[in-house]
Amino acid sequence: MKEHRDILIKGLIALAAIIIIFASLSRLLLSGSDTLAEHAAKHSLAPTTEAPAITLTPAPTPESSINVTEDSYTEEITPSPEPTEDPEVQIQKQFYFAPLTEDQKSFITGCSYPDTEEELAISYDDLRYLHIMHYDFEGNLAEGELICHNYIAQDLLEIFYELYLNEYQLERVTLIENYGGDDTLSMEDNNTSCFNYRVVDNTTNLSKHAYGLAIDINPFYNPYVTYPGGKIRISPKGSEAYADRDADFPYKIDESDLCYKLFKEHGFTWGGDWNSMKDYQHFQKTMK
Question: Total structural domains in the chain?
Fold first, then answer.
């Protein structure tokens, strides 16, 4: 009996201990516990303050894809003096034509334009000063000057501008006054020229050059070939090798040449198409 009593007492003591421990744990949990929401609020990894907003500044919109200034132009050209009268037409600053100024009239009088009281076939008012740029035989840019009839001024402006864009080479383009009005000297120097009040060689007929309606292009390499008395005559002197149009050489004007194509497109006649003579340098236009 005593043995059963001892076992009962031990069981009661153990049960009491369990009850005491359970009660302590319950108080601890009730006094210090958090809900899941409260725990999350206290121990979350998210920042306790709101993160600052990130402002994305848009990239500036460019005004243009390329900003080209006058100073960025790589080929420096010293502008020639602007004409005293407003140009009748101007493709760009270096390509224009205009009526002759008084200084220009004075410059040509007594040379390409006769100094006479007699009535001439053309007047100053019919003529135009034409300024261009071109590439010389070294591939450098050079200024060019021509005097022509107003009737072909627009044609020449467009033709020479197209030649310039294609870097077509002309050895020199200067006024015939620089050769004293001597067409032979101008050709020998391979000068491209237009107006010169003169007659056709060995005739009394005025040349189309006298009206400013004809132009000679790179004349030394595109000579003037005639057959007086059945004998061949080639001008200028020294250009005989270039009379052979089957030969291959630079600066030759033929039907495949850009210069030929442009002049034909503008209604000019080419001296290389003539039958009784050949003037490979020569283009002319008839007024309508």
Answer: 1
